[in-house]
Every structure is written in structure tokens, then in C-alpha cells.
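chain below, 567 aa
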Amino acid sequence: MAEQSTVQTPAKETPKFQAPKKKRKWVKRLVILVVAAALIIFVLSRCMSSGVQSVSGAYLPAQATTEDLTVAVTGPGTIKPNDSYKATTLIKGEILSAPFEEGDTVSKDDILFTIDASDVENAIKQARTGVEQAQLSVQSAQLNYDSLVRTRNDNTQDRQVKANANGVVTKVYVDPGDTIAAGTPIADILDRDNMKLEVPFHSVNAAGFYVGQSAAVTVAGTAETLYGTITEIAATDSVGLGGTLVRNVTITVQNPGALSDTSTGSAAVGEVTSSASGSFQYGERKQLVAKYSGELETLTLNEGDRVYDGQQVGEFKETQMQDQIDAASIQLSNARLALRNAQDSLARTQDSLEDYTITSPIEGTVIEKNYKEGDNYDPSTASSSGASAFMAVIYDMSRLTFDINVSEMDVVKVKVGQKVTFTADALDSQSFTGVVEKVNINGTTQNGNTSYPVTVTVDGNGSELADQGLLPGMSVSASIIVEEVGSVLCIPVDAVQRGEAPYVLVPGAGALDESGNLADFTKLERREVTLGRNNDEFIEILSGLEEGETVFILNNASSFMSAMMGM
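prediction:
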């Protein structure tokens, strides 16, 4: 029923009858697509073939050959003289003499320039006067200080109350806290332990006596005999009983306890007896008096105390003299400091006089002379006025040197004494030799890489080399020969590829055409190799290749991308 309804549809519904035409258009489009695909496949196949040939041309062949390998560390440098000196000074003034010319050879310590030093000579005279004045100030301050110290010491001695005899204190006149004047009695001291007996002897006999001689003393009334020594002999004679000449002799004995100043006795020296008896006296009876005026701060004496000669028994209160001494000490220190400053100033001024005579610290050749006799030199205005800041420049051309910076990876290979070859940029046809003089361990780090300066001494006399054209300031390219390996199997350094293990590219089956040229780079094969030493051009092959084998190097100037860009 549905199909009949469809057949009987009016003729105005034309879209239903256009379906066969759409089917024919689809077939036509399919045919076009098939043809286009075939054409694209053909073009691509031709392009791929051309691309393989083009990329194959981006590889350069090299042979594994035996080479006389020399390992070197290279780098640039700048030629310098053995030593140089640029004469200058911080002083200014008129140049009085300049006894040399450019090209002259000067020796060490030769005078180059003398500058007018009249100003500094006047300054030296003033500085000497200042030193003399400072010395007088020190002397004055020293005298003042010493005087106060002596006074203080004297006062210190006088302030101390000391016993002036051995004995017993029989009377005390003052108390602590009393204010007394010098000469005031303080105490009486009596020596009862020793008794003195003064008796006359005939002068004829006494003339043979001497101090310290033993004597025997007989005490009157007791007939007790005591032994002592002669302590004093009168210097002159006197008239004794009966008109005879006598001389008094004093004998000291120890008091047994019963003797007093009322006891009497006689004496005998050897077989000679005294011509008369005499009275005993206490060994010493002295009065202790004050030697200082002021308040008696302490006193340790009491009646009945036993003291010895020189024993300190009291002290007066100190006055404020210490403040004066301290002030004098500061004044003396300041005077000494002023003297040192004056002496230092004089020394500096005298030293500056040497700056007015400029000498050469090296032996060499004068290559510049910028000032002459009569010129005025002023370093502060030399640059701004267009004049040279250096009065003269001297080069020691006995030898030439240069420094090259060696990386931290290579510096361990460099040793003092190694041979160096180099060329100068300005001298295309000449090469020169030298030797490593010093490897400096003070490196410089930039961007995480450290380099070390290596000093090279050029072989030959510097002046003769300069005559050949090698001049200070020229740029050179140097090679430090760190090892002369000898004949070994080598390939170009660029032929080695770096992966997990180093490898080279060698031709596999189908890689080469009949002429031995690379026809298909996709047929190149990797081969691991064991590497040895190398220089900038060649690297030693220890294993993995045989002499004469071909390796291929990718030419960085012609890459796969450039080949595709060409297509």
C-alpha cells in the first residue's frame, strides 16, 4: 500500500526523481580522488628518493689513519715585556732635571726626574722645630712629675711613725686622732736590756784597745762579773786622778735584770784594769718625735710595749697630693704623645722628600718620555688637560711573556717547563716558541666555568724578537704541548658521536654506490669505539676501528632540514 501511494504521487514532486543523478556525481568524484592519490604517491616517492640522495650528501667521509698525534691546550694571549714601569708621582712642581731620552737604556735606581722640593724642605725645618718644642714640653712635664713623686715619697716616709730605738716604751704623749706638728714628742723608749759602763783607762793602755774587743765588768757591791765588748773609745785623753792621762772607754754588757742607772762598776781588758769605776747607763734612751704635721690616724704604742728600731707604730693621715701626681702623670703622657706625633710628622715629611727624586726600579729601555726639564708636572690636572699622566714609560725587553687562560678541565695537564708554540695575528708567516713559566692557582669563575692564567716565556731575546716584528701588545694564538703521543690510529674529532658510549657512523650494506660514495644515509650503522687522547683536530682510537676504514661526519652546514627546505 505504501509503495502504491508513492507511485501515484503527483509529477510536481521532482526531488524524488533526481536520485539517480546524485549517484553518478559521487562515482565521478571517487575517480578523481583515486587519480589524485596516485599522483601524490608518485610525487612523494620521487621526493623521498631525492631526499635520501640530498641528505646523503650532508655526510662527509673520513679515513681512520695513523697520525703523529700531539696533545695541546690552546688559547689566546697578549705579548708583554718582561717588566715595565710607568713613572709617576703624587707631588707636583717644576721638573729640575730629566737626564735621559727615548730609546736610552737605564739601570735600576737611575734618576729619571728631579722635582723642585723647596716647599718640602721648609716643611722639614718647621717639623724639626716642632720636635724640639715637644721635647722641651716632655722634659718640663717629667720634672714636675718627678718632683711631686719625690715629695709624696718623702711625705710617705714622714707620715709613717717608726720606733727609733730598741727597747721598752716608758711613756706615750699622744693618742690617735690628735693633730700635731712636726717635732712633737710621741713616746719615750728605753733600752734596759743593754747597759753601758764608761770607765777611764791609762791612755798608754787604752791606745792598744779597739772597738769590739772583749772586756770584763765587775758590778760594785755584788762582785758579780759580766762580760761585754768595747763599743766606744774616746778620741782624746783627759786628766784623771793624781794628774795621770786617761782615756774613757765605753763597754756594753747585757743586763742580767738587776742593773739600773744607779749601779756602778769597774772593768778590765785583758790584764789591764780601769783606773777608776763608773756609773752604768741604760743602753739607749730616746724620745720618738713626729716628722710630719697633721692628724695622727693610727698609733699602736702603749706604755710597757717592747719595740725594735725601725718598727712602724703609727701613721699620719694622707693629704690630697695623689690628685696632683695623677694630673702631672696625664700631663706627662700628653707631652710624650705630642712628641711622638711631632717625630712622626718629621719622619713623614723627610720621607716625602724622596718622592721629589724619581728613580727607575727596573733596568730597561725608555719607550716614552712625556716631560722634560722645565715642565710643570701636576698629576691632578694631567689627564684633564690632555697631558700624559705618566712622566715616562720603561720596558724591560730582556724577554717577552704572555698569559693565556686555561679552563679547569685542561689546567691539570699543564706543567711548568712544557713547550709552547704560537703565532701572532699580525705576523701571518711567522711562528714562535716558548715555555710555561708559571701556572697560577688563583682562578677566575664566570658563568660557572673557572679558568686559570698560565704565564708563558717566549724563547729568545725580547729586543731581538721586537726587531723581527713581535712587539708588546700584539695578540697571539698559543698551543701548550702537554703530550707528544707519537704515531697512533686517529680520526677527526667531529666524527665521534656522544651517547651512552662514544660511537662513529660506518657504511652498512647498500650505503655506498659503485664509486664508493654515500648513496643512502639510512644504511649507515653505529659502531662503538674506545677513545684515547686528542687535540683540537684528531682523536686517538684505541679499539673499534681499523686503519683505512671509512667513517662519516654529519656536515653541520647541510642538515636534513636544509635538504627538506631544498625540496
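The chain is about 25% helix and 40% strand. Residues 1-23, 47-54, 559-567 have pLDDT under 50 and may be disordered.
thats it, cya
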